[in-house]
């Protein structure tokens, strides 16, 4: 039996602890940096498995770095475990129904992501013990991927500087190597302070913070015409002043996300949005406070490592789903609208140009698509991830595992409902095996590491990573 097959068996031998941890995290969904309960299963398993653990890195109480081995290469594996607000959902139910009204839920599968990464770290560690391999494995516990961007703070503070290569994965509705980029993003609060007054009897004495917020939003709407096509600016009201319409509102607050394909492009738009906010405050004679929340860089997929990871994905990423798995997932496929279902058939046709119409229809209507897409690289972007900051520090690769119902999007109730299923569990194990076998390649193939680092140097232009987060901004 070769080493990679051994890794697969080693992970299978301990699968119950990873599945139990995933379900435990699903049951205690926590957001941003407040992952008090979610981090506990990691620490318990890692301590039992013989990793040394540093807790509370980069001023984040519930972050950690777990280390096994010594010497080079140093391979990092990235784990996430935060959930999303207002996505509570009853498990295994084929319709939207909150378990706790207004509660949190794992709508992006991070209960699986984190434990899949954990399985990968433990799997390669076990083989290193057996084979007496040199090198270092580090598992990074990273809170607040969804909002707050824990890895961006960790990168800013040099936590990843020790790495030769970093690996990660994400649940999705299709399996593939992650050859896409991502959007850089700035997250900013704009707080306006005015003067309250009776809106009818003495409006001239008031200074409306709500007017300032509305004028800012109007200004940004006009700005959209004058930014790059790929730029994205969206916002939410955090404070609209109050519920009394007969009061000149003395406070208002906006939360802005400013995105672009490259971090310098996002920064340029951010500066222009700041000027609009300042203008709104000037027009309304209100005070403005700009609070920098967080930011993350665009993702740079390392082709050398991503290609190696794809090869392992094709061997170990198949989830071997049963007819019972497909039958279970049918409830989520049935929840899709007709347009989405038609789009899945179109996607199957595009991905399988030589397939028969019968095969295309079969693939396009499978509740879970147990098929690995061909490897490709593109500058196309989708969403934002703080893995981007890690990718500017060292060569980084990721895969997607199609353990979510086909056609369902991230941040949906279907993903929460699916989060403790057999399909979800098989996905995290497939991810762990893909990560562990790729880590093995890096531990035993110095040429691959050297190729990855040379590519990374060329991609970043030899520049040292510079965080977009100011030094005085702390995780919160």
Automatic annotation (TrEMBL):
InterPro entries reported in the protein's UniProt record: Amidohydrolase (IPR017439), Aminobenzoyl-glu_utiliz_pB (IPR017145), Bact_exopeptidase_dim_dom (IPR036264), Peptidase_M20 (IPR002933), Peptidase_M20/M20A_hydrolases (IPR052030), Peptidase_M20_dimer (IPR011650)
Ranges for domain Peptidase M20 dimerisation: 192-279
Superkingdom, taxonomy of origin: Bacteria
Protein name, per record: Aminobenzoyl-glutamate utilization protein B
High-level lineage: Bacteria, Bacillati, Bacillota, Bacilli, Lactobacillales
């Amino acid at each position: 039996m070769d080493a990679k097959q051994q890794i697969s068996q080693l992970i299978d031998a301990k699968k119950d602890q990873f599945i139990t941890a995933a379900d435990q995290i699903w049951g205690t969904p926590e957001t941003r940096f407040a992952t008090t309960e979610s981090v506990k299963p990691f620490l318990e398993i890692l301590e039992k498995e013989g990793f040394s653990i540093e807790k509370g890195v980069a001023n984040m109480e519930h972050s950690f770095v777990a280390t096994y081995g010594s010497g080079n290469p140093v391979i990092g594996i990235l784990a996430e475990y935060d959930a999303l607000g207002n996505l509570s959902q009853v498990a295994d139910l084929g319709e939207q129904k909150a378990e706790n009204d207004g509660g949190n839920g794992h709508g992006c599968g991070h209960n699986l992501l984190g434990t899949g990464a954990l399985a990968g770290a433990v799997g390669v560690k076990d083989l290193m013990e057996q084979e007496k391999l040199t090198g270092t494995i580090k598992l990074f516990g990273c809170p607040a991927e969804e909002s707050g961007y824990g890895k961006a703070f960790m990168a800013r503070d040099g936590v990843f500087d020790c790495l030769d290569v970093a690996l990660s994965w994400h649940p999705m509705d299709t399996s593939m190597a992650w050859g896409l980029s991502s959007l850089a993003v700035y997250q900013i609060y704009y707080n306006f302070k005015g003067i309250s007054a009776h809106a009818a009897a003495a409006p001239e004495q008031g200074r409306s913070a709500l007017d300032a917020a509305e004028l800012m939003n109007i200004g940004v709407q006009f700005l959209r015409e004058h930014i790059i096509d790929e730029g994205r600016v969206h916002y939410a009201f955090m404070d609209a002043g109050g519920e009394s319409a007969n009061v000149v509102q003395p406070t208002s607050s906006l939360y802005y996300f400013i995105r672009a394909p490259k971090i310098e492009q996002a920064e340029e738009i951010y500066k222009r949005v700041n000027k609009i906010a300042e203008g709104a405050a000037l027009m309304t004679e209100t005070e403005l406070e700009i609070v920098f929340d967080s930011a993350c860089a665009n993702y740079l997929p390392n082709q050398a490592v991503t290609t190696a990871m794809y090869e392992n994905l094709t061997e170990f990423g198949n989830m071997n789903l049963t007819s019972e798995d497909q039958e279970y997932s049918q409830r989520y496929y049935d929840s899709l609208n007709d347009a989405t279902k038609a789009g899945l058939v179109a996607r199957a046709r595009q991905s399988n140009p030589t397939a028969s119409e019968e095969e295309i229809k079969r693939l396009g209507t499978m509740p879970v698509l147990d098929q690995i897409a061909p490897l490709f690289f593109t500058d196309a972007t989708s969403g934002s991830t703080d893995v981007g900051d890690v990718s500017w520090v060292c060569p980084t690769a990721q895969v997607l595992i199609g353990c979510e119902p086909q056609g369902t999007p991230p941040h949906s109730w279907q993903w929460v409902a699916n989060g403790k299923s057999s399909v979800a569990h098989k996905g995290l194990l497939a991810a762990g095996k893909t990560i562990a076998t790729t880590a093995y390649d890096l531990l035993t193939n110095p040429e691959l590491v050297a190729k990855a680092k040379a590519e990374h140097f060329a991609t970043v232009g030899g520049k040292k990573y510079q965080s977009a987060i100011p030094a005085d901004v702390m995780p919160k």
